[in-house]
Amino acid sequence: MFKSLAPPEYLATIDREKCIRCKRCIQNCGWGVYSWGGDKILINTSKCVKCLRCYHYCPEEAIEIKDNPTKFKNNAYWSFHHIRNIKRQAETGGIPLTGMGSDQNYPILFDNLMIDACQVTNPSIDPLREPMELRTYLGKKPSSVKIEKGKDGKLKLQTKMPPQIKLDLPIIFSPMSFGSISLNAQKVLAMAAKECGTVMNTGEGGLHEDLFPYKSNIMVQVASGRFGVNPDYLNAGVAVEIKIGQGAKPGIGGHLPGEKIPLEVAKTRMIPVGTDAISPAPQHDIYSIEDLRQLIYAIKEATNYKPVSVKIAAVHNVAAIASGIVRAGADIVYLDGFRGGTGAAPSIIRDHLGIPIEHAIAAVDDRLRQEGIRNEASIVAAGGIRSSADAAKAIALGADACAIATSALITMGCTTCGKCYTGNCSWGITTQRPELTARLDPEVYAERLINLLHAWTHELKEILGALGINSIDSLRGNRERLRGIGLDTQTLDILGVKPAGR
Amino acid sequence: MNHNYQKDISGCGLTGLISKKKNRLSGSHIVKSLCLMNDRGNGLGAGYAAYGIYPEFKDFYAFHIMYDEPSVRWTVEEYLKSNYHLEKIEEIPTFPVKAISISPLLVRYFMKPLKDKLVGDIQEADFVVNTVMKVNSEIEGAYIFSSGKNMGAFKGVGNPCDIAEFFRIEDYEGYIWTAHTRFPTNTPGWWGGAHPFTLLDWSIVHNGEISSYGINKRYLEMYGYKLTLLTDTEVAAYLLDLLIRRHGLDIPTACLALAAPFWKNIDNKDEDEREALTALRQAYGSALLNGPFSILFGHSKGLVGINDRIKLRPLVAAIKDDITYMASEESAIRAICPTPEKVWAPRAGEAVIVNLED
Questions:
Q1: Chain B closest CA to A396's CA: distance in Å?
Q2: Is A375 within 8 Å of chain B by CB?
Q3: pLDDT in tens, B79-106
Q4: Superfamily designation of domain B10-355
Q5: Which of A170, A347, A469, A99 is closest to B312 using CA atoms?
Q6: What domains can you pick out in chain A, each with its CATH number?
Q7: Residue B209: how many other CB atoms lie within 10 Å
Q8: ipTM score of complex
Q9: Which chain A residues have a beta carbon less than 8 Å from that of B212?
Q10: How far apart are CA B224 and CA A453, in angstroms?
């Protein structure tokens, strides 16, 4: 067979002295890198994605995965990836796919924003000794409320409040469908959401019956393929999300290949086994903002007015689009920055379309305030939230809550290898192969995800305490407590943040 | 460019008193009380507010305007004349004080909006607020520092005693008084930066730093307020105006929004109260005043004292006869009321609300 001219990215190596030929690497690798040669392990390194499953399960630490030192001649303009992609396209004529969020070297604004702290003139607060509130409600808020005092002197609300989603911390899970990830991975998200008082999102894959017990912590999604959508589904969760776009692939639909559609996925999506599940690029009943309004209200009618979220990719004109979405009746605007993850996207799209979430939050929050409608919808920010600090910065820029997916998957073993689209995930996350999904014990991994949320909860409380505030309400949109370092004047203006030292 | 401002930070001492029976008291009491707390300020700002001081003009808005630049006086007066009936214009009486070498031109106006200007739905109070916002944000060198009826603020750069002498505070008689001495840590001495801050009948003196300032400011801007002073206190004044006057909350409820009870306490209330307080916090999360503060705010019907939700700044209250006193320190109260009937430290977030008798 013609040997590919695109050299392997990684070299899987085995220390033959240490190897005890236990074959665990063969068993664990979902990619078929290792095979048994009769007396030793054989290695097909071109298949290696550096997911490190074999490394972790090698009892003798005999395995090492190296970046391939053999690269094309160094060239500041023609990078390794440019040349390699051209060679791959020359061989296949296709669009190179990828998973995860963009790994390209674009500026990361989160890393150029610093959070304030109290000294002398205002005391910092110790979250271990004083109450520290992270509770967040997502949904439309009235601009004012009417409260009357009864004869007994007790307060009585006179305003009818729009429905709210109560969160114990300002972090939810981003939508990931059953199909793109395994049912076990979804169970991990659902269990952790329930334990931590937040919500997971079904993505566009329907709701498997195993998740019914977690309904009060689930948001269901309606996207362009309308997979699994029926009245029961719409009413199953606490809210419904209409997915217009995704940060990793703005303007692009989805394609779940037939190989990832076994019986359970097919049943949940309500499509035949083994057929490709195509989500068109637009929703074919939404070609305009007025069409979106009709779908929002159709869903509200069908669900007795549950909150409706509209998810869009952060694109250049995001502020005006978000304003339209709020005016169309959405309760939540979900913004997904270009660093946001994906199960599968053309890498050319993932790496070149959209804008960073930091700009999008600032622009949308500003626009909604200028138009006097910021209270009409909550803003959820997603697309590359790597830590509680990123979340705090996103909230200070103006988000009500953040959504995480990659961070959650990392607790399940993900190493961001970016090969989710192949269906071979050796950690049992983005695969439907039963021998691989069986590895992901939901109870065990839910514990790890719960630990992560607990850790971020503690960290957020420490940040609030250092800021001298005891409620997340006082961080939200409080850009006065952020400073930029190394950012140009225009970027600072867009973010509404002063430079450090001012 | 709205983010590019230098926020004002200061520590302070405050004191206030109210006679429920509307007995008008000389300013000498409040001056004595405030001057006891000289060490809580650093001479870079002090001020007084009093209610009931202009009975002969009680139906007119009393505008106190300071002109850093005397030439803009005519611009401002042109503008006022085209929108208001001006009953009386006079310079605010001041007396030379050795420690105060320079002061802005200080003029007061008693006036009413012209009837034909109040077209459509615009309320008189909104019209006046718009005038204050416009002058303060658009006319460089002019600053309206008092705009209520039968009340007034007097403030400037100096020690409490010097400012009192400069304005002859003891010559005024009022039934509500508040006063403030200031310890700014980063502002140049500007007369407008001293407390009290007022808008219409609201007057605020404030000790503390509002750590939620950034979001409070942006929240208010959504409702058309222009925050020109960049101080925490201004935020508190406008929030009260928004919640009470424009949104119609009563004062105790507005206090529950500004220094909101903790969720754990709300969750333990019975259903109706829980629902009301939850909605209040949901709607007014961005109005929550967070960070250390004690605030006294006066209005045409009474005086309110309130602390932040975990009481990071001092506030003491006392009662004697029909007078309620509130101050940063008990000694400031005892200086003018040596034997109060009751003295107490209000709990965190619990407002002390005193209303005038009808």
A1: 9
A2: yes
A3: 999 999 999 999 999 999 999 988 999 9
A4: Aminohydrolase, N-terminal nucleophile (Ntn) domain (3.60.20.10)
A5: A469
A6: 10-94 (3.30.70.20), 159-499 (3.20.20.70)
A7: 25
A8: 0.92
A9: 469, 473-474, 478
A10: 39
